[in-house]
Amino acid sequence: MHRRRFCGAATGTAIAVAVPANSAPSRPTRVGTSDVIRLRDRVENLVALDATRGGHTALEHDALAGASEALRLQKESATQRVRQRLFALASHFTATAAWSLIDAGLLDGAGKHLDRALTLAGMAQDADMSMQVWNLRALLARQQGDYAEAVAAAQAAQATTAARRSPLHASLAHARTAVGLANQGDRSAALRSLGRAEAALSKADISAPRPTWIAFYGPAELYSLTASVRDVLGDPAEAEAASYRALTALPKSYRRNRAHTTAWLALAQLHQGDVEQACATSGEVFSIMDGVPLPGRMRRLLGDFQRDLITLAPSTHTAHEWTDRYRTEWSTS
Hints:
The protein has 333 residues and is mainly alpha-helical. The protein has a domain at 248-333. The chain is built from 15 helices and no strands. It has helices at 33-53, 57-74, 80-104, 110-124, 127-144, 147-159, 161-165, 167-184, 187-203, 219-232, 236-249, 255-270, 275-288, 296-312, 317-332. The relative contact order is 0.07. Mean pLDDT is 87; it is low at 1-27.
């Protein structure tokens, strides 16, 4: 309403209203697509930072700040479509915060973030985000040694609309299920899930655009997960072969994935009794990650290697040399 057009309805007398000349009428802020794009770019920048540096608490804090902003904006004037997109972004930010803790090996707070991210994904009615959260829940449960929950979360990922519609998503969900089943000791079920993951991936269009969070998944990642499943099942030769396939298929830019797969390769070689080769291979992890701190998940995997090395070859010169050379770098990097 124009600020000069106020009239006294009862008396017909004009009422003078003192308003500063430079004031403007108060209007609600309009939140729209530009805000969604800005926040989407922000979360993608955090994903890129994670790819470069790995999970860390500063990344968690930045991600949670992004989630708070998305939730604040959805409360302001906006269409229902924009509100749902903002809820989805808040879920993505919160899931990114959870992943940063999982990757850093700081597992205690990750579950709370994933619970919140799943709630926000439901508010957004976003099946892709729900799939992302269940995938992370399966990964977290595996890291915590709760393999029954890891299987249940992976099966929940399979049941999402995203997995039912997308062979790529379905393949990842089946692969996560295989990992959990292998750690439970269910060999036949784990191998069946791997077969389903391979069959689904063969139907996926790998070149098609995809959400940022699942950009990592493809043949190389499936080979890497196959290596971990085979090693856990006691098939180190098959694990070694799968690791080599993963390393061949990995894009050069996937530095951390390459280091992680190399660690699995070293474990497979060690479990075949090739101690010298395994120690040389594990040493490549530090070369690949030179100049970048080792994420907590990778340190844990190298800790498994060091433990098995001491168990399988406690008195060998090679084992002592590896421990002397890499223990400090592995434990503190």
